[in-house]
Amino acid sequence: MIRDQWYAIARALEIGSRPFGLRRLGKPLVLWRDREGAIRCAYDACPHRGAALSRGRLVEGALECPYHGLRFDGTGACTHTPCHPGLADRSGLDLHLLPIREERGLVWLWNGKASDELPPIPWDDAIQARLDESGVAQLDLTDTFDVSYLRVMENLTDYHHVPFVHRWTVPAPAEVTRFHAERHGVDVITEGALGDRLTARTHIRGPCFALLEFGGVATFTVCATPIDDDHTWLFARYTQTWLRVPGFGALATWLLGMFDYRLLQRLQDAPVWRSQRLSDPADISRYTLLPADEGVRLYFEMHQELACR
Ligand code: FES
Ligand SMILES: [Fe+2]
Fold first, then answer.
1. Residues with CB under 5 A from ligand 2 (ion)
2. Diameter over CA atoms, the chain
3. 6-110 classified as CATH 2.102.10.10
4. Span from the CA of 174 to the centroid of ligand 2 (angstroms)
5. How far is Cα 296 from Cα 277, in angstroms, rounded to an integer?
6. Residue 152 phi, psi dihedral angles, 5° rounding
7. Phi, then psi, of 185 in degrees rounded to 5
8. How far apart, in whole angstroms, are the C-alpha atoms of residue 297 and residue 309?
């Protein structure tokens, strides 16, 4: 997993009155809200004897282990050892907290050392403004796929798969009549058209965040976070731009999200992603890229640079 990056790992509204266990970046994690309502994150293993803390409970904002009842406050400090209530030194039992932020309705995990000067999350105000432009309700969807996040990310700049993978659902001309790709640091931007019909623009930022815009119809953000090397948690916030009538606009957004997420991606894209057999998901040296894959090339060029820092 690329280090020193922010990864969206969960929807913030999922973190409530119970510890929430999840697997991201190849690690079991636990999320909970402390006494002040701030979300906290740690490896899902009790410092005492390793029980999964996500099986425990919250007691007045403290995370209580299900095995012997040790409790941890919002700083990770062990505050209660029921078998020895007066234990003088509990410092060896403290829980190591991982750096997280709650922004854009998501929990973001920093895959690196904690610091007071971490960079901003990739979903900045300019990207949010593109989503807000449509003025209609936004729809959040999540799903998991049994492929590397790299198969999902490389697909985002690839328009010329549409007339084949989505032959019956998004009929489009096969010829790429316009395509431009450019890279600025961790940003890879592609813009293009199939025939005179489908136009698209994608803006990838860093290893696994993107803004996608489809020809005056839909705009959405995507986070493709590794669960592990072979599984991906996908989050998308959809909005559509062709029907802005109140009420109907929200319905259209819902229909669009379901169409793209449940039908196109799950039933049409995912089987092809699964069929791409690479011994190392990040090693694309066996690919033979076409001009229409320039976004794919730039994405992996950027990814390789991030991996080698
Ligand atoms: S393993 Fe957690 S309290 Fe013993
Ligand atoms: Fe697709």
1. 269
2. 75
3. yes
4. 14
5. 17
6. -70, -45
7. 65, -120
8. 19
Are domains 6-110 and 125-308 of this chain identical in fold? no
Spell out the domain ranges in the chain.
6-110, 125-308
- How far does the centroid of ligand 2 lie from the alpha carbon of residue 159, in Å? 8
CA 275 to chain centre: 22
- Note the CATH number of domain 125-308: 3.90.380.10
Token pair for 122: 């990739």
Summarize pLDDT for 70-121 with one digit per residue, the tens: 999 999 999 999 999 999 999 899 999 999 999 999 999 999 999 999 999 9
The pTM (predicted TM-score) of the whole model is: 0.95
- Main-chain dihedrals φ then ψ at residue 10, nearest 5 degrees: -165, 160
Alpha-helical regions (H) of the chain: 125-132, 149-156, 162-165, 248-258, 270-275, 294-308
Are 19 and 62 spatial neighbours (Cβ–Cβ below 8 Å)? no
* Dihedral sign (CA 271, 276, 282, 284): negative
Angstrom distance (rounded) from CA 137 to CA 252:
9
